[in-house]
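Recap slide: DEUBAD domain-containing protein, sequence and predicted structure.
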Amino acid sequence: MIQGQSGSGAASALPEFSLTDILTPANLAPLFTSHPELIQALFPHLPPDLPRPPTPETLQQIINSPQFRGAVGSLDQALRTGLLGGLVRGLGLPEEAGTSVEAFLRAIQDQASGESGDSMDTD
């Protein structure tokens, strides 16, 4: 569960999350090692010029690349603008998931655990 201590005067009691602090190679590599089926699921969404079949080594190179870090930073910044409602709907998430990093992470967590997303309190 995503939990924290205190916000910066906002109604939320959670600290500001950054995707660049969460989606690190150190956090992602064990996930792909323990769930190799994720590699197959991710590759259709990656550039077509990557070696086939997908391998853990290729994915490791991707998550360590400056391009990946830059893309994560861009997504983080876009989520902070609150203007990604259409994108998150396309991912099967509620529109509110596009309003902040916290809301996005909660919606991903709810989706991964099979919840409908109605436990997402961001007020």
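The chain is about 50% helix and 0% strand.
The two ends are 17 Å apart (CA to CA).
(End of recap.)
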